[in-house]
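Page 37, continued from 36.
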């Protein structure tokens, strides 16, 4: 059937017409059986990727008084798979609330926008919950869907799933949020409106100031009449929030610890994972959950490919992620400060989470 299209634009590629060839790459014979390198990415990384990873690791791990690692590096192939598992944890209600709101209000959301609408998604992951929006739009027009995702495995899964929907054409961008969005914005037809999806409260990874700055950058790529659907997890009681980021089965701990394992695999690091403990902290002043990896004993860390040697004291932590939480009343202001108007908001009844529809002013 000629109604289905799936394409991929890899980092560093500009040819949007190139067909997805993930399966061909994956089936290439891998002769390396070293457990550390067996997990190397199946799709080629841009040449600059390792140098940038090394520089980021070096800069963040040497920060004082609090050492850090950038949360975007949680999402390699294993990290993305562990995140998918987090999303089905009973304690992590966020993803289900997000999906419920999309399922229930897809029609209201798309009805607020003038046809024709093309859809871009920042950090699509596997894209499962986006189906409701795409189906609602495809009922009235052929719909172009541009998932923007840095994890090749997540992007491939997303393209496969969403490419099945009648009257939906998928062009994946293996790029960072803003690079991807700029590429999509240049490609779209002049008469088309763009709906940008930023779901799952991924905005929460940014400090509040940086979040504003990011939304302003998103706004710059848009035109009047375009829209942004922003998912925001809302403040709830501290115990519920901590359990959501430190579940009893240890999936979130594995997700967090995998960042150290990734540094060992890709940069030759010597982290001993059993000597680190995952911890979730609620920071009330900043209204955010922080994930930390706490050294159980003195650790001499060597990361040759980042040209780094550090000593971690017993009890010293590496801060790996922040998840900011919001109150519904702050969202209007956030929109106004960043060049949008919040025209609608839907809140889940079971798990406090809001879907916010912003129009580009
Ligand atoms: C994908 C960034 C929204 O902060 O809730 C889940 C990531 N980290 N459990 C979040 C995450 C630990 C998630 N975001």
């Amino acid at each position: 059937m000629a109604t289905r299209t799936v394409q991929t634009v890899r980092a560093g590629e500009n040819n949007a017409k190139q067909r997805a060839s993930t399966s061909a790459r994956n089936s290439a014979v891998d002769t390396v059986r070293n457990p550390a390198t067996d997990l190397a990415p199946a799709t080629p990384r841009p040449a600059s990727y390792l140098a940038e990873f090394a520089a980021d690791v070096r800069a963040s791990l040497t920060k004082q008084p609090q050492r850090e690692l950038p949360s975007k590096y949680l999402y390699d192939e294993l990290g993305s798979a562990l995140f998918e598992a987090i999303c089905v944890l009973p304690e992590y209600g966020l993803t289900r609330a997000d999906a419920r709101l999309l399922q229930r209000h897809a029609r209201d959301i798309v009805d607020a926008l003038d046809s024709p609408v093309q859809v871009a998604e920042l950090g699509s992951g596997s894209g499962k919950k986006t189906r409701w929006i795409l189906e609602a739009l495809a009922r009235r027009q052929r719909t172009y869907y541009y998932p923007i995702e840095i994890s090749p495995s997540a992007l491939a899964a997303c393209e496969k799933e969403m490419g099945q929907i009648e009257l939906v054409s998928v062009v994946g961008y293996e790029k960072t949020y803003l690079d991807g969005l700029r590429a999509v914005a240049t490609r779209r037809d002049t008469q088309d409106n763009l709906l940008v999806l930023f779901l799952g409260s991924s905005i929460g990874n940014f400090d509040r100031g940086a979040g504003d700055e990011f939304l302003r950058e998103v706004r710059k790529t848009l035109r009047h009449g375009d829209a942004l659907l922003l998912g925001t997890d809302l403040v709830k009681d501290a115990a519920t929030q901590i359990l959501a980021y430190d579940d009893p089965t240890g999936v979130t701990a594995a997700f967090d610890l995998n960042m150290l394992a990734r540094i060992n695999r890709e940069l030759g690091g010597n982290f001993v994972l059993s000597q680190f403990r995952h911890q979730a902290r609620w920071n009330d002043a900043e209204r955010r959950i922080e994930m930390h990896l706490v050294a159980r004993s003195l650790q001499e860390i060597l990361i040759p490919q980042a040209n780094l040697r550090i000593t971690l004291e017993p009890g010293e932590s590496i801060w790996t992620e922040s998840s900011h939480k919001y109150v519904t009343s702050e969202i209007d202001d956030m929109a106004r400060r960043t060049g949008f108007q919040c025209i609608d908001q839907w809140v889940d009844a079971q798990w406090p989470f809001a879907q916010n529809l912003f129009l580009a002013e």
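Residues 14-36 have pLDDT under 50 and may be disordered. Flag for discussion at group meeting. The pocket of N,N,N-trimethyl-histidine is lined by residues 86, 94, 200-202, 204-205, 245, 252, 321, 323 (CB under 6 Å).
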